[in-house]
């Protein structure tokens, strides 16, 4: 069976105090290159997600990146340098506005030593993240100020890739897929709102050079029978996260972490 790998950030060095390493949404450059070395050593073929339907010999691997972080650029360049393939699932709002509520709160946590322990534990456990993933940016900023007195954004301006960088990677062979326009969970949307979310993302990706029937990666992995049905009529393949999918069409991905586990390479 082919393996679909899920990555987010690739940072230069491992830092145990970094939010992204604590939440297993970052790996170090050394871990990343070791992963590519192992793929090469095992003689596996890397393919874009669009090729899932024709990869039946179990000797294929699919490297996917979520969200569109700027540190994906050197990782994608390394993949291309080795003659490999990968699929990137960027979020339109993150790229064009350079902002994400969950990432902003993460940087606030890393910058402030006096963050209430209850808030810190809530975000690290994922409880607070479940609220943030439903909030549009304007509402998030309002609540951030009301609840925590945080007025300024903590997010670096260059955390995400740009439209131009994405277009350049498409021209060089990196595949793009749909990860939503806002990154809000699909299960919180009506069918009409979900279709608009998908359409906005697809139109944006098409403007960057992406073609064909694009695959869909569920934001935060959240899906159910209803959303999967809507998405099945819109995308070529549906990808979840490192958990047993709730619905048949959705395919599981292996979450690549800094520390190896039994599912990992």
Structure characterization notes:
This protein starts with a strand and ends in a 10-residue tail after the last strand. It is globular, with a radius of gyration of 18 Å. The model has no long low-confidence stretch (mean pLDDT about 90). It has helices at about 20, 30-40, 70-80, 90-95, 100-110, 115-125, 125-130, 135-150, 165-170, 190-205, 225-230; strands at about 5, 10, 25-30, 45, 60-65, 85-90, 175, 215, 240, 250, 255. α10 (about 190-205) crosses α11 (about 225-230). Helix content is about 40%, strand content about 15%.
Give a short overview.
The chain is an alpha/beta fold and 265 residues long. Helices cover 40% and strands 13% of the residues. The chain has eleven helices and eleven strands.
**What fraction, in percent, of the residue positions are helical?**
25-40%
Give the total of beta strands.
11
Low-pLDDT segments, ≥5 res: none
In whole angstroms, the N-to-C terminal distance is: 14 Å
Report the mean per-residue pLDDT as an integer: 90
- Radius of gyration, in angstroms, nearest whole number: 18 Å
Please summarize the sheet with the most strands: 6 strands, parallel
Order of helices and strands: EEHEHEEHEHHHHHHEHEHEEE
User: How many separate helices?
Assistant: 11
Query: Which strand-content bin applies to the residues?
Result: 5-15%
The outline comes out as globular
């Amino acid at each position: 069976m082919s393996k679909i790998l899920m990555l987010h950030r690739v940072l230069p060095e491992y830092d145990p105090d970094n939010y992204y390493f604590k939440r297993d949404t970052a790996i170090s450059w050394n871990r990343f290159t070791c992963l590519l070395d192992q793929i090469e050593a095992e003689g596996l073929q890397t393919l874009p997600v669009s090729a899932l339907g024709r990869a039946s010999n179990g000797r294929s691997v699919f490297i996917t990146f979520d969200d569109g972080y700027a540190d994906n650029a050197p990782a994608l360049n390394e993949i291309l340098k080795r003659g490999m393939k990968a699929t990137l699932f960027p979020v339109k709002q993150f790229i064009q506005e350079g902002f994400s509520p969950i990432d902003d709160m993460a940087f606030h946590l890393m910058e402030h030593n006096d963050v209430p322990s209850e808030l810190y534990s809530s975000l690290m456990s994922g409880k607070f993240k479940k609220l943030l993933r439903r909030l549009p940016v304007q509402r998030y900023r309002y609540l951030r100020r009301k609840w925590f007195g945080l007025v300024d954004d903590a997010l670096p301006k260059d955390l995400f890739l740009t439209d131009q960088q994405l277009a350049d990677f498409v021209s060089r062979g990196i595949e793009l897929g749909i990860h939503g326009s806002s990154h809000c969970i699909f299960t919180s949307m009506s069918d009409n709102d979900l279709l608009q979310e998908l359409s906005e993302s697809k139109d944006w990706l098409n403007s960057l050079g992406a073609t064909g029937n694009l695959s869909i990666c569920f934001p935060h992995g959240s899906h159910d029978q209803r959303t999967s049905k809507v998405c099945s009529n819109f995308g070529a393949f549906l990808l979840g996260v490192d958990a047993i999918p709730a619905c048949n069409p959705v395919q599981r991905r292996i979450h690549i972490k800094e520390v190896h586990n039994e599912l990992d390479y």
